Amino acid sequence: MTATPTQTRESDGVIEITKGSGDAVDPTLLFIEGDRLYPRGDGTWASQRTGFSGDAIWGEVSYIKGNATIYVDADRDWRLELVWRPDNGDEETEVLHENPPETDTQRG
After folding, report:
1. Which of 106, 96, 100 is nearest to 76 (CA)?
2. Where would you tag: which of 15, 39, 40, 59 has the fewest CB atoms within 10 A of its CB?
3. pLDDT tens string 44-92
């Protein structure tokens, strides 16, 4: 999985999260967590928008496969964790942990 920030305004933006190849995953078991993020609904992959900006598209998706993408609103200094929480009582797993890329002003 990858997370790519897409700056939409000077102070905030959108993070694009893409699942690459691999096993299909139930999107209701993937949770978006972190700091300065604004996930929609219950915070699961399934409740996030799949279209950018005004082209938001939601739909019933029972499993996500390769190249599935969602978009999450975020402030500038966000921290993202994508956590898989199985519904069978097994321990949760952090699938992705990302911070925004360092900017020239942060490097000093």
Report:
1. 100
2. 59
3. 888 887 764 443 444 555 778 777 888 888 887 889 999 999 888 889 9
